[in-house]
Amino acid sequence: MILKKYLTEVSFKDGSSEFKTYRRYTRTIEITETSTSLVLDLERKEISDGSFEVSIKGKYDIPVYFKQVSDTEDHIYEVYVKSGNNLIKGDVLEVSFVALNEAISDLYSVDYENGLLYLATPPNIRLDVDYDAYNVLVKGARGIQLEPEDYTVTDTETNILNYKNNTDYNIVYSLKTEEESTYSTPIINDIGINYINTSEEESL
Fold first, then answer.
1. Do residues 91 and 35 lie in contact, with contact meaning Cβ atoms separated by under 8 Å?
2. Which residue in 94, 105, 129, 133 has a CA-CA distance of 20 to 30 Å to 143?
3. Neighbouring residues of 32: CB distance < 8 A, sequence distance ≥ 6
């Protein structure tokens, strides 16, 4: 499969963990030789602790136990039955577990501070990246933020202590929604309310 576009941006964390999703996998494995145990290579990464389940198809009354074979390879499991039971040739094991979803993904993230683009899936064709760059010079009066003790805010009014007639006061605010499902780049969060003094005629 050729992924021609990376369409979905997610918030940048470290260029890796923001892309991770998990899904449940199911497998059926036929027993080829009668024994009391069988080692399985599940061939999946980051199998979730406590998610592994196994049973013998049609013989659900027979307990099947399991354990990880290696501390460093979490995809290798041994399944076994206890004394008096066997995994009989022709039996079918039903295995279920949650692991890292390695399907091709269209996710990407951007480290805006360092100018780095991260892709969830390695590109297998040439990609074109479109972006806007600006060189902006802003001039104007310098805003001085008031300290919290210099004003009070209620549901109906804002009161500035030690108000000066020769000073211009502006309220800078931003509405903030709880949902983050819709946004455009660059991603901006946590904008609060500031009270600033803009009377000083100084360039930024």
1. no
2. 133
3. 89
